[in-house]
Backbone:
């Protein structure tokens, strides 16, 4: 409606305030326009947030309070089940806007931070997905004060993805990823659980870093898991296609430098190396087979050398797949 359009723009020209003052003569109409949702379930207040128009937001809150509908506006959820904190946690709003919105919910903070949308993502998940470092820190701090930190950190969405799955994706930048890792790594049990959990495809967060070729994230997970002594707990996990991380790494979507870094990190552990090199996917293929099929000459050479050193070359060089 007209307030959606007016709310998203800078009010310096007086348009928004003019409309609000005009509507004061008809409270019923004002209430209807304030509460009106667009096809995505967003009110004029959402649009003001999207446009970064704090003054317009203040005007809506003041007038809606007089009308007794402020709570309806603040607790509004869109068609995706997202509340205002989901909205503010994304890249639509800057950090200052997020802080402003966060402070609006002092009495309802616990409810707002714990709320899951239709995909079972909380505002923390959204902040991580969009790589919003400052927002991630703020949510951690507030959740810790409220005693709900474990609840939202260990939340998994409908794809069974946890916070580290989101952080390991390409959409989350390296700074935000490191921020998440720093905030959780003090708890060994929690970190081990998050590293080991698989999504609905059977992929761990580390698998996601390998699939996406995000070298910095892969390196950090390897280093932290090694320090905590939990590397083996997730590194040999297979997905639903019986692929391990070495199957992914041997593929053509994973660059040679990242492959060498990964191999150098794990090759000191004979048990892990033997398991990864020998595992077969659902087609009966070893990582070496994948490297051959994808014509990855550098990887083929490295895999042959490492398997020869371990004395397990015959274990897979004579392998036949299911065909």
Residues:
């Amino acid at each position: 409606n007209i307030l959606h359009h007016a709310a998203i723009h800078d009010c310096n020209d007086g348009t928004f305030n003019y409309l609000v003052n005009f509507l004061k003569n008809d409270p019923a109409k004002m209430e209807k326009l304030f509460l009106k949702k667009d096809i995505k379930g967003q009110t004029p207040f959402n649009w003001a947030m999207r446009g970064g128009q704090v003054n317009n937001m203040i005007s809506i809150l003041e007038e809606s309070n007089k009308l007794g509908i402020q709570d309806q506006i603040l607790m509004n959820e869109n068609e995706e089940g997202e509340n205002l904190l989901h909205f503010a946690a994304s890249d639509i709003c800057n950090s200052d806007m997020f802080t402003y919105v966060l402070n609006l919910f002092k009495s309802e903070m616990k409810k707002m931070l714990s709320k899951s949308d239709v995909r079972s993502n909380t505002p923390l998940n959204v902040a991580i997905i969009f790589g919003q470092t400052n927002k991630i820190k703020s949510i951690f701090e507030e959740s810790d004060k409220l005693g709900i930190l474990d609840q939202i950190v260990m939340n998994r969405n409908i794809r069974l993805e946890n916070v580290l799955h989101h952080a390991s994706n390409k959409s989350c930048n390296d700074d935000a990823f490191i921020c998440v890792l720093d905030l959780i790594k003090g708890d060994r049990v929690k970190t081990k659980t998050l590293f080991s959990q698989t999504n609905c495809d059977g992929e761990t967060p580390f698998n996601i870093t390998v699939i996406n070729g995000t070298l910095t994230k892969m390196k950090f997970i390897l280093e932290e898991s090694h320090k905590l002594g939990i590397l083996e707990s997730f590194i040999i996990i297979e997905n639903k296609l019986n692929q391990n991380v070495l199957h992914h790494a041997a593929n053509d979507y994973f660059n040679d430098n990242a492959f060498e870094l990964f191999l150098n990190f794990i090759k000191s552990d004979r048990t892990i190396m033997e398991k990864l090199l020998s595992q077969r996917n659902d087609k009966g293929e070893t990582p070496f087979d994948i490297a051959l099929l994808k014509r990855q000459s550098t990887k083929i050479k490295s895999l042959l050398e490492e398997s020869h050193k371990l004395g397990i070359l015959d274990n897979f060089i004579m392998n036949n797949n299911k065909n």
In short: The two ends are 62 Å apart (CA to CA).
